[in-house]
Specification:
The chain is mainly alpha-helical. The chain contains 21 helices and no strands.
């Protein structure tokens, strides 16, 4: 009997948060949408590069427009997320992306698909992603509790990593079977499934402004709420350092990512299926990172883990331009694997730290401010990548982005982040929010 009880306890420990029905529904929905997203990540650049014959700058602009909403709408989105219940925002974000992506196969079937429509779809889906991501990161602490944040983020990251392992290969196969435009239907359906799972979460979510309403207080002006989120992040030296490291990493890495379809499909002559295999096998690094992120932080300390994991990005990126033209696959697989491992370990720990120290009332604005700072550089990097590739060539542009990717770890190395050992307690509620 004790043996059976011990085995049962071991299984329960491994399941952790997956024993909670509501977290399981959030996890199922996000996992399905992550698998679907891998199809579009291959299919949309393939459509632009191969089917529509877009130039290097046009392909880079496609990536820029996907993330431009993070520059334009993230800060007000954070304030709105702190004013509204988060679950309806998640559902709405999924449904908008269902409709936007669904227009691509429809237009292709009618013979009217253009690069302009891909731009519009990317921009609209990007707006939905802004609201979804800010609400998602702000919703998790209230769903699982602060003590389980690292586990929750690790399980969600493991799903994303699993999708990155399996998804590209499946995506490449689906593209080969039905064509890139119709393969996107799979992604649209995955967002629909995510919306259905999130809609079934039963835990009651109190209105963020319930106490303010009960006290008869008027709603704060949107501008003041946005300013509070900016102050919260910019006045905290550790959050400033994390923002600097992540934003500069995204700037340089997206100089590479924006033009990588041109490099893979035109310069190296790879197929969508081969690209899917490269990213799928390489993403095993992301899966490994999700599994061991907690253990690394427990043994090395939170600060050292954050610094060391982001430092892997530069050397990994250098392997891309170093790959020989006659046999690039192994080099690219290692580049993806090492970079993915570092990125996942870094994100699990730094996002959990941000969520842990932020008061509930400002979670939305903190996440929005960080998203604005760290993802706002993505469209800038994408446009720079397109411009530099046009001026000096695709391969040279990738070298520049790779060298730049070796520098972002300095932001956290030369900051109080290096002194972090364990996950801290939340800071006091801002006075103006009480």
């Amino acid at each position: 009997m004790p043996v059976h009880r011990s085995a049962a306890q071991s299984i329960e420990q491994r399941l952790g948060l997956l024993r909670q029905v509501d977290f399981r529904r959030l996890w199922f929905g996000e996992t399905i949408s992550q698998f679907g997203s891998q199809v579009s990540l291959l299919a949309i650049p393939y459509i632009a590069t191969v089917l529509l014959k877009a130039t290097a700058f046009e392909v880079a602009l496609l990536g820029a427009l996907q993330f431009l909403p993070f520059l334009l709408f993230t800060l007000p989105a954070g304030a709105w997320v702190d004013r509204l219940r988060r679950r309806p925002i998640l559902i709405s974000g999924d449904l908008v992306r269902v409709v936007a992506l669904g227009t691509i196969p429809a237009a292709w079937g009618l013979g009217v698909l253009t690069i302009g429509q891909l731009y519009l779809v990317s921009f609209v889906a990007g707006i939905a992603t802004v609201f979804f991501d800010v609400a998602y990161q702000s919703y998790l602490p209230s769903l699982v509790g602060r003590e389980a944040l690292v586990e929750g983020n690790a399980k969600l990251s493991a799903s994303e990593a699993s999708a990155q392992v399996v998804g590209p290969g499946l995506g490449g196969a689906v593209i080969g079977l039905v064509g890139a435009p119709f393969a996107i239907i799979a992604d649209a359906l995955s967002y629909l499934a995510s919306a259905l799972f999130v809609s079934r979460i039963e835990r009651s979510e109190p209105h963020p402004e319930a106490e303010r309403r009960a006290a008869g207080l008027a709603r704060e002006p949107l501008r003041r709420q946005i300013a509070e989120g900016l102050r919260f992040v910019l006045h905290n030296p550790r959050l400033r350092a994390i923002a600097g490291a992540t934003s500069s990493s995204n700037l340089f890495s997206n100089m590479v990512y924006a033009i990588i379809p041109i490099y893979l499909y035109r310069e190296l002559g790879l197929s969508a299926a081969t690209a899917g295999v490269i990213f799928g096998i390489g993403a095993l690094g992301a899966l490994a990172g999700a599994v061991v992120a907690n253990q690394i932080a427990a043994r090395a300390g939170l600060g050292r883990t954050i610094i060391g994991s982001i430092a892997l990005g530069g050397p990994a990126m250098l392997l891309v331009p170093l790959a020989p033209n006659d046999a690039p696959v192994a080099w690219l697989v290692v580049a993806v694997a090492v970079g993915s491992f570092g990125s996942v370990v870094y994100n699990i720990n730094q996002v959990s730290y941000r969520q842990a120290i932020s008061p509930t009332a400002i979670q939305g604005r903190m996440n929005a401010t960080m998203r604005f700072l760290v993802w706002g550089t993505i469209p800038i990097g994408a446009i720079l990548g397109g411009l530099v590739a046009t001026a000096v060539g695709v391969h040279n542009a990738i070298w520049i982005g790779a060298f730049g990717s070796c520098l972002p770890f300095l932001f956290v190395l030369l900051s109080p982040v290096r002194s972090l050992r364990t996950m801290p307690e939340p800071l006091a509620e801002p006075q103006s929010i009480a």
